[in-house]
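Entry:
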Amino acid sequence: MKGNKTSDHRNRSVYKEGIVSIITNMALFGLKLWAGIVAGSIALKADAWHTLSDSVSSVIVIIGTKLSSRRPDKNHPFGHGRWEQISAIFIGFLLALIAFDFSKDAIQRFQENEGVVFGTLAIVVTIISVFAKEGLAQYAFYVARRTGNSSVKADGWHHRTDALSSLVVLVGIFLADRFWWIDGVLGMVIALMLFYASYEIIRDAINKLLGEDVDPATVKYITELIGTVHSGNIEPHHFHMHNYTSHQELTFHIKLNRDMTLQDSHHIATSIENKIREETGIYSTVHVEPWGFDHGSDYH
């Protein structure tokens, strides 16, 4: 089945992103911690632990994808796909906590008016971190676009937060002698960006859990598929998608000739359901109505 092959490829892409993320973050953690110890910089040491926290979010992505790929069972007939949204919500809250720490540290730097003397090692390591973390973010966003995995998208934002935090440190390195307050200002700006990213991630995951309208492009494609099964005018409408991530349930209505036999109408509906499943991997349920019959929810 195309749907199963697509799901397996999707999961492999997510696992690969998670593993690459963990390995890269562990290497960056060691470099940043070493540079922080050599420079005696609290900021670099904190940034190192922030990088290590990214590995935690990547582990969550892998576990969430593994749980979501489990087959349906007696208690969960539609599968476990919504674990991805649960994982994304968890990562969103983790981002919010990091944003809170950023804002708290920024305020503290304003109050204490502290400066840090950085060396060449700190500059080189910080530049490497900025490019490596943004590279991981772009990779995660690419995988998220291909797979539709919201927890991978959340992981991408987590990578970007670390790139931004390293950028703050880098700007502070070059401007700290001239503007003692630069770290505090940039820290607050990034904290606000992180809060907004956290809000978007959690909102997107909750919307999927609560249910969304069917994408117009999907409706158009399904309608075209129906036309390849039955050439008559059957007017598909009343589309509803129940998204379980790795498993999707689509319901909609079609109108048929009122004089058609039950057997013929059932054959048309079943043929449409099979075609949709073969081409998209989506499980559909078709409700048949006679032409000339309308009820209030037909076109909602």
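Residues 18 and 266 are 45 Å apart (CA to CA).
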